[in-house]
Write a structure and sequence with these properties.
By secondary structure, this protein is α+β, with helices and mostly antiparallel strands. It folds into two domains: 39 residues; 127 residues, Mog1/PsbP, alpha/beta/alpha sandwich (Protein Transport Mog1p, Chain A), CATH 3.40.1000. The chain is built from three helices and ten strands. A seven-stranded antiparallel beta sheet has the order 3-4-5-9-8-7-6, with helices on one face. Strands 1-2-10 form a three-stranded antiparallel beta sheet. The longest helix is centred in the first third of the chain and has 37 residues.
Amino acid sequence: MNKKLLILVSAIAILLIIGGIVFTFKSRRASVISPVGELKPEVTLATWEDQAGFAFSYPEEIEIDPHKEDMENYAHLELTSPDHSGNILIWVKDTSYTDIEKWPEEEATRGGQVFETELDGEPAKKIAYTDPEKLVTAAIDVDALVLLEMIPDEEGYWQEVYDQILATFAFVPLEGEEAVAPGPWEGAGGAGGIIEEPEEVIE
């Protein structure tokens, strides 16, 4: 009887020891793996303010080529990274469109899928293309077409940057522009309907 009891006690002790070893191993492994998976490198943001009348934030590691040789468009920015394929292009162009709702009619012929969105609170369109793969967000600013194009990479880096730019993108009124939507007629300010009025002085 004592021999059976000794064997039983020994078996329980061995099971407890094995269980303790397994528990300790899992705990140590979790303590090593978990923090690594949760930690993300800090991203330092910079702000780009463009003379074409807009601003946005972006990771300062990104290189921006303003393409000063482009004399046709108001803005032509190319955002690239030496560590990631893909890029982002930001354009501000002349346009005959006065309403962004009409713009996708032409773009739809290229096979893009159109989504409703906003850019700095203004109505905008987002179009997803598959061949070649790219994402385009478009809006009208006074009398110019604003386009933000993103060619993605496999890691999803440019998608995160694109989301950051869209979230912080802001239209900045140019000197002499009023923060009022232009009318359907051409006023003294030209086709954009922007009128400069003298400030009223109250004595």
